[in-house]
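Q&A log
Question type: sequence-to-structure
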Amino acid sequence: MGMMNKNTVLAWATFLMILMGLILIAMGAFKYDEIAGWGFATVGIGFFAVAWVFNALKGRV
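Response status: OK
Response body:
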């Protein structure tokens, strides 16, 4: 794969955070019917927020 620069690392981190956020939201929506589902969905939204920050940092670090 070769050397990865900082922007490539941030791009991969953004992609993985979005993927994990979607998985957590799906778990909260479809797997857990009790109050734990709200927690999973909230953490998934938090993953989206961190991915947004990673995406904003590309080209600035």
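Response note: DSSP finds two helices and no strands in the chain.
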